[in-house]
Amino acid sequence: MSADLDRIPLVDLAAAHAEVAAEVEAGWARVLAACAFVGGPDVAEFEREFAAFTGVAHCVAVANGTDAIELALRALGLPAGGGVVMPANTFTATAEAVVRAGGRPVFADVDDEFLLLDPQRAAEASAGPVGAAALVPVHLNGQLAPMGALEALARARGAFLVEDAAQAQGATQDGRGPGSWGPNGIAGTSFYPGKNLGAYGDAGAVVTGDDAHDLVLRELRDHGSSRKYVHTRLGFNSRLDTVQAVVLRAKLRRLADWNVARRAAAARYDSLLANLDGVRLPRTAPGNEHVWHLYAVRVPERDKVLALLNEAGVGAGVHYPVPVHLQPAFRELGHAKGDFPVAERAAEEILTLPLFPQLTAGQQERVAEVLAGALSRL
Ligand SMILES: Cc1ncc(COP(=O)(O)O)c(C=O)c1O
Q1: DSSP label at 104?
Q2: Which of 190, 196, 206 most suits a substitution to test ligand 1, by most atoms within 8 Å of the C-beta?
Q3: Right CATH number for 255-376 from 3.40.50.2300, 3.10.129.10, 3.30.1300.10, 3.90.1150.10?
Q4: Which of 5, 26, 89, 263 has fewest C-beta within 10 Å?
């Protein structure tokens, strides 16, 4: 078996780096020569380029995706203790950002087909005792939650809408990207290294079409200041390092092509796995242009299948094994198993297969073969 089939990683960051290495090294040499490490022209250019890529007027680069969501909620003026409706099956950071912004997570279940926030469940959750000052849909695995219905719900409830677009750089719904929905139009994203657009460390951004929010966000990320030593509000230190902006600019130039490659790889898995009994394939919701941050199938006896894949050198993973409402960190919210059955069942069944732009057809055939072998041993 050829070397690239012996070990197939979940994400191959080295393959992505090989494509941008020359640009990153030249850019970093420039940053080192200037000894200007925070902000500067590279950050400003990256913000312009990422806003244009996303199709919104503004991008405010911040230190990570969790900060992006927190600062977006703060920029909108989330009231203290305000309920924030979000799906139960997300990364813990979505709920963390809400609590840090002074809100109270109000979880809602997802639909069984796409595992995205279910507008009907979100409506029920928002009618509960805590109410809904905001909705935070999560664009899980690379496709947008059903934004038309969620936007309508936000308007009906007089709630803000902040999108968690950490996993959806380049994704659209009916031609619109994150940051263009809802009464206010604002989304947070993460450039954690494994994301479709990944930095070489932590990084994130808020995108918005709203000029006033843009200005507030710029102050919030920089100690409440837009002019040196004038601090108009209590802020944070959540700026983007210049070295990260260099990496992000180099990778952003390739992101559209990388997303096309991810889509082709997802389609190839679809056909390779189509006739495999017991496997439920991920699907794209109507109107969505999916960017396949993750390709997550559902299988019986997931932990056993995962172990067999990993033993055979296939870097499969699970996103996420424990829904947020059952995490000890959120025990004060008083949830128990059974509260959100779709999210809970998904957490037991989902299995993320290797997917990255440079994944080869041969590697995918190997993944499919190992998965078939694992299922035949159950
Ligand atoms: C859905 C989701 N929300 C929020 C985050 C938080 O981003 P970060 O790790 O950059 O703080 C991530 C990524 O880690 C994520 O996948």
Answers
A1: E
A2: 190
A3: 3.90.1150.10
A4: 26
